[in-house]
Amino acid sequence: MPRTSRSIPREAPLPDAGVQSEGFRETRKARRGALVEDYVELIADLIDDGNEARQVDIAARLGVAQPTVAKMLARLAVDGLVSRKPYRGVFLTEAGRKVADESRARHRVVEDFLRSLGVSEEVARIDAEGIEHHVSAETLEAFRKAMTRGR
């Protein structure tokens, strides 16, 4: 079938297969960790807001069914990130709190950087929610430096 449109020319040569595959591996790793980070960050937010992190609240805020939350909470418990008590909420372990704090810090840097570019508060918050899981420490540091240079 003939092509009807022209492709956009590459600005650089195709990277070495090993280099390119590393990028894809890192992206897959970030996707796997994103859901865990979203859960523990939300649990930390609920607890820090003075509330108990209950399964029903987690489900409502993530927009998923309670059985989905129950399954993830079981996984987080096995991974040592949360503890659960019968008829009570969910609590973060020390390891879970560390993951939540690191995720929240990455989110804050990404959101602040987007805002420094002129992105609206709402869009920056939403976009940061996805970017925070995929951004490297090197890129975060570059975001920080760019923001301090702009002051």
Distance between the termini: 54 Å
Note the overall shape.
globular
Query: What's the total helix number?
Result: 6
How are strands sequenced across the largest beta sheet? 1-2
How many strands, what sense, and barrel or not for the largest sheet? 2 strands, antiparallel
pLDDT averaged residue by residue: 87
CATH class placement: Mainly Alpha
CATH architecture: Orthogonal Bundle
Cα-atom radius of gyration: 19 Å
Oligomeric form of this entry? single chain
| Beta content | under 5%
**CATH homologous superfamily heading:** Winged helix-like DNA-binding domain superfamily/Winged helix DNA-binding domain
Structural class: mainly alpha
Overview of the molecule:
- One of its GO terms (cellular component) is cytoplasm.
- InterPro entries: DtxR_MntR_Metal-Reg, Fe_dep_repressor, Fe_dep_repressor_sf, HTH_DTXR, Iron_dep_repressor, WH-like_DNA-bd_sf, WH_DNA-bd_sf.
- This protein has helices at residues 17-48, 55-62, 66-78, 94-116, 121-131, 137-149; strands spanning 82-84, 90-92.
- The protein has a single domain (22-149), classed as Arc Repressor Mutant, subunit A (Orthogonal Bundle), CATH 1.10.10.10.
- A hairpin with a 5-residue loop joins strand 1 (82-84) and strand 2.
- It is built from six helices and two strands.
- The chain is globular.
